[in-house]
Amino acid sequence: MLSFSINEEDKIMEFLLEKKDDFQQQILEEAVNVREKIEEILLVGNVDLLNNAHKLVRYIVEQNEAAIIAFAEQEGEAWATHSLTLSFKLEWVQAIRRTLWKFLYEYEQLQDTFNNVEVFFDLEKKVNEQVDQFLKAFFIRYSDYKDRLILSQQNLVENLSVPIIPITPSICILPLIGDMEESRMYIIEEKVLIEIGKLGIQVLILDLSGIVDMEISVLRKLMNILDGTAMMGCKAVITGLRPEIVTKMVRSGVCFGNKAETKGTLQQALQDYLIV
Question: Terminus-to-terminus CA distance in the chain, angstroms?
């Protein structure tokens, strides 16, 4: 496989540095859609596209595969973190590829370095492979890092949707707000049982005053949560049941029985279980 000599690398880099302004201008002409977004990308993602273009070109000329991959992974994380547009990145790298070849051809015209067609095509293959390696490493890291960000955000949302609030070392409140679906109830069940075991909760007050309605399937899932709570040695107290939900429970034959104590309001439960 063709490789530049160290002396040849230095000469090419010296030539490209001399042509730095022309090189940048050519990239901007090639990357029509990106050039209007350069300042925005720098502001949003702290990504300096022009300086990074010169860095990538240097790694390619040096044929430093390890540096190319490391740089691509760094860029992939930055673009994933700040949700920058992937099509801009692809257009920008392809513009760098085309511009690099334009200036390598210009260098050849001046230096007569690539003295036959076979040598030039070997060089083309090597350079293109390195650009493709950069893109591959970039998209792999972007995808992996984006998946981790999404998972982290999902975990955060799940934790926020199940806010178990300690009142005393043994008493906690779980205020439930918004739409209740079976999928959310599975998350609540898991979090409740884990937190009972971890915190040693003896009384868990589930305040339902923020819930307007619950389907029968969701109410049955709530029964399962209450069963699990009792099995963990924790007493469940239900507060804030709305008349609409109580009516639906009565008509469907669903009742808490001895699974949980009920109180009209959260304040009543706190008065009964806390020494004021």
Answer: 82
